[in-house]
Design brief:
The chain has 591 residues and is α+β, with helices and mostly antiparallel strands. The chain contains 14 helices and 25 strands. Strands 1, 2, 3, 4, 5, 10, 14 and 15 form an 8-stranded antiparallel sheet that branches. A hairpin with a 6-residue loop joins strand 6 and strand 7. Helix 8 runs antiparallel to helix 9 and helix 12 packs parallel to helix 14. The longest helix is centred in the C-terminal third of the chain and has 21 residues. The N terminus is likely disordered.
Length: 591
């Protein structure tokens, strides 16, 4: 290996700006793929298990396929209506592509990562490096051997098998490395399997696995969605589908510890299922014309509400277990600007608004005639908890210290009204009356003297979350408080076509945190509801462009630097983007 090539190989493990990472996902886990063909993050066997590739956070493990020629520019694209990614490198002596996917639909106990390398126009040499490490890099490979046409090993209690790597050889560091020589036009397949049990079955056939994956995505996706934004809307649906465990929850993001603000202490583990995010995704999925995401969200939230009632946590693992306590892993350097954290302290919060979100989701499912008896019981439980606890302070949508947050109470009003319209007569009137009682209290204590909603009973400021109650129907669309709130939010929190959550202090917008893309798409929906279709499209187009080449969104967007901030990809942003795309397309179709 030349010095120049070796340097290139080392740089493959260095972090990149988030806009350059692509996502592979199969419902049970997800991988983040960097521009040098490096799988920089992959947890196994499940979403919140320790990673086997953790170079994203400074760990030693990764899996790289990259041109040997060190002079290249990177690009790529997703194949339509899927999470099949094609990396593309234009080098000084030819073009190389690598088709990448996790076999979809996935298996809870066995992941299969496919990589098909293609020398497009000239002979090409591609370097392959496989360095799996268990437990955030602390567990090295053991039992590495080649037999039966494949490399096999164990790492961190998992079984590995790699096929197509005949040229790979072990190094003193315990990695497998080698160069693939491809004649012009040729393709070469690599298959990595990682399993909780021994991999004793015959070697996989790449062509069969690719067909399974192509057919899986084709059958999982709506036929058309999103009108003029149909490509991005379909991709948002694919992201949500890929992040959702069949029969279980949807993770808020694939990653952990990516900072929302460098050295500011705001870096969290989002590899868990948030009740609120799940509700948003289910609502968006229903609008897209398929019921898969809606049904998965209903099943997950029903189980959690019936099991925990008024002790409902804001988040769970995707299997419905409690989120681990937050802890720092000091042995890893982390992504630049933040330490590594696993688990999440949100598990101990009370968030009143999630009960309203649950009711909104279940009511939407009822309108589609998709509720079972258990889900009807969950609806009654959620309404009962609101009745008993709506006067209490809570942590709110932004998970802040407990206060009387206006949005939390209005979310419950919206949920109760939606549920009452679908409920049996014996409870419909009671729920509607409860919604009226909560709204009357908010109208006195959460209304600003100017006529708009204010952030909390003891805080007169505006908050972008206050756009949501109007969108969700807490009050009629023509209620003057809705429009007064929308105008105040835009006047106080808009910058360059993006929207911030709130002003945390006297600093200018952008100095304390990034713009929130969720809020930007909410602004699009609010403008559409107000009848301003031009503004709705302006908000939508501005915020859907806040991504990198792969088209993924994080929670925050650094307006000044035009960079993504926080964990990747953020599910609820994709959900609001999808909802806005479908809603605005309906506006385009109006006579």
């Amino acid at each position: 290996m030349s010095d120049e090539g070796a340097a290139r190989g080392r740089r493959g493990g260095d972090p990149h700006v988030l806009r350059e990472y692509a996502l592979l996902a199969d419902g049970h886990r997800g991988a983040l793929l960097g521009p040098e063909g490096n799988v920089a993050w992959l947890c196994a066997p499940g979403w919140a298990d320790p990673p086997i590739f953790s170079s994203l956070l400074g760990g030693p493990g990764d899996y790289t396929v990259t041109p040997v020629n060190p002079r290249f520019v990177w690009g790529g694209h997703y194949e339509p209506r899927s999470l099949i990614w094609v990396s593309r490198w234009v080098t000084s002596d030819g073009i190389v592509e690598s088709r990448e996917a996790l076999v979809f639909p996935g298996d809870a106990h066995r992941l299969v990562l496919l990589r098909r390398i293609h020398a497009l126009d000239r002979d090409a040499v591609v370097r392959v490096r496989l360095d799996p490490r268990g437990d955030f890099g602390r567990a090295a490979v053991n039992g590495l051997r080649r037999a039966g046409g494949a490399w096999t090993a164990c790492v961190g209690g998992l079984h590995l098998r790699h096929t197509g790597g005949e040229v790979l050889r072990p190094t003193e560091a315990g990695t497998l490395e080698g160069d693939l020589h491809l004649p012009a036009g040729d393709r070469h397949d690599l298959v990595l399997e990682v399993s909780t049990g021994p991999l004793d079955e015959p070697l996989p056939d790449p062509d069969t696995l690719w067909r399974i994956t192509e057919d899986g995505w084709a059958s999982a996706m709506p036929s058309t969605v999103g009108g003029s934004a149909r490509r991005d809307a379909a991709f948002a649906y694919a992201v949500l589908r890929g992040l959702t465990r069949p029969g279980g929850g949807m993770v808020a993001a694939v990653s952990t510890s990516l900072p929302e603000r460098a050295h500011a202490g705001r870096n969290y583990d989002y590899r868990y299922a948030w009740i609120r995010d799940q509700s948003f995704a289910g609502l968006a999925g229903a609008l897209a014309g398929r019921h898969d995401l809606l049904d998965e969200a209903v099943a997950f939230l029903t189980a959690r509400v019936l099991a925990d009632g008024d002790r409902l946590a804001p988040a769970y693992t995707v299997t419905g277990d409690p989120v681990p306590q937050q802890a720092e892993l000091e042995f890893l350097p982390g992504y630049p600007g933040a330490p590594v954290r696993v688990g999440n302290w949100v598990r101990d919060q009370f968030q009143l608004d999630v009960f309203g979100e649950v009711l909104q989701l279940l009511a939407a499912a009822a309108r589609h005639d998709r509720l079972t008896g258990d889900s009807w019981r969950a609806m009654r439980v959620a309404a009962r908890v609101i009745e008993e606890r709506w006067r209490e302070p809570d942590a709110g949508i932004w998970e802040l210290p407990a206060r009387q947050w206006t949005q939390s109470k209005l979310a419950c009003v919206a949920g109760l009204r939606s549920a009452a319209r679908t409920a049996p007569p014996d409870v419909a009137g009671r729920w509607a009356a409860l919604a009226d009682a909560i709204l009357a209290d908010v109208a006195v204590r959460g209304r600003h003297p100017s006529g708009r909603w204010q952030r909390a009973y003891d805080d007169e400021r505006v908050d972008a979350a206050l756009l949501l109650p109007g969108i969700r129907g807490a009050v009629p669309p023509d209620d003057p408080r809705t429009e007064a709130t929308r105008r105040a939010v835009l006047a106080e929190l808009e910058q360059d076509g993006y929207l911030y959550r709130f002003r945390p202090d006297r600093r200018p917008l952008g100095d304390a945190e990034g713009a929130f893309l969720l809020c930007g798409f909410a602004a699009a929906l609010a403008a559409w509801q107000a009848g301003d279709v031009v503004a709705a499209n302006r908000w939508f187009e501005r915020n859907r462009a806040a991504c990198g080449p792969p088209g993924l969104y994080t929670e925050e967007y650094d307006v000044r630097q035009r960079q993504l901030r926080g964990n990747l990809p953020q599910a609820f942003v994709h959900a609001l983007m999808l909802e806005a795309a479908v809603t605005l397309n309906q506006a385009d179709l109006r006579p």
